[in-house]
Amino acid sequence: IQNTVVTTDTKLNFDKTLDITVHSPTLNASDIKTVAKVPIKGSGKLKCTVKGKMKTPTVVGSATMSNFSFVNVNFGNVAFKLEYSGQGTIRIPSVAAFKGRSAYEISDDKVVFKKRAKGGTLVEGKVHATKVYMSDLRKIFNLESKLLDEIEARSEGDITIRYEPGGEGTSVVADLKLGGISVFGETFEKGWLKGQWQSEDIIIDEL
Fold first, then answer.
1. CA distance 40 to 34
2. Contacts of 57 (CB under 8 A, 6+ apart)
3. 80, 93, 160, 187: most buried, per Cβ within 10 A?
4. Is the distance from CB of 41 to CB of 67 less than 8 angstroms?
5. Cα 32 versus chain centre, distance
6. How many angstroms separate the CA atoms of 16 and 36, rounded?
7. What's this model's pTM, rounded to 2 decimal places?
8. Are 141 and 197 in contact (CB under 8 A)?
9. CA of 47: how far to CAs of 8, 64, 76, 171, in Å?
10. Three-state SS string across 16-58, please?
11. CB 73 within 8 A of CB 97
């Protein structure tokens, strides 16, 4: 890990318990890619505590990241908490994210990581958009198609993201309620958008 700075304040007690504070004032997500083997970028700060028995410590922490990108999705600025209770699983109870004018959140019960037999990690998760603007979607999902330039709207709903390592890339399925809509110059008060895209291919199933 080359670009991340970590400091610790460690206490090893005689009763075989830990009391450690970990602080990273400079956290570079690209260093995590070295360990996790999934596309990840961004920079920020992390602070956590490690307490309890040496074999089953409890870890509680929080982090903020700017320009955060994960599995080729540009989430923007994010803030999250993490928990580990010695059961082999790290929980991230919730993630709050902001990109441009848009805001959305992710809960860890809707994110799945699967090791594939042929190598790599498949990631699938569901993002709940509390307020996402169509003009921000191109930036969030790296869409080169200009179709979304003709649609301006405020949206709310679920976006499912699936990352398939090696060739398949990242695919997205969206199911969104729309408000304040402008489509090819025509205006509407509210509506619905169902669509999917992968790389440059955009399919609008219902608008």
1. 10
2. 18, 50, 51, 84, 86
3. 80
4. yes
5. 14
6. 30
7. 0.70
8. yes
9. 10, 9, 20, 32
10. CEEEEEEEEEEEEHHHHHHHHCCCEEEEEEEEEEEEEECCCEE
11. no
For the chain, residues with pLDDT lower than 70 are: 1-2, 32-38, 86-90, 107-111, 113, 119, 145-149, 166-168, 199-201
Burial 176-206 (b: 16+ CB within 10 A, else e): bebeebebeeeeeeebebebebbeeebeeee
Q: Which residues touch 173 (CB under 8 Å, ≥6 apart)?
A: 159, 160, 195, 196
pLDDT at residue number 86: 63
Query: pLDDT tens digit string along 23-56?
Result: 888 888 877 655 556 678 889 998 989 888 888 8
CB atoms within 10 A of CB 6: 12
Taken as a whole, the chain contains a residue count of 207
Query: Rounded to an integer, what distance in angstroms lies between the CA atom of residue 46 and that of residue 119?
Result: 29
Task: Count how many Cα atoms sit within 13 Å of the Cα of residue 34 in the half-sphere of its side chain.
Answer: 8
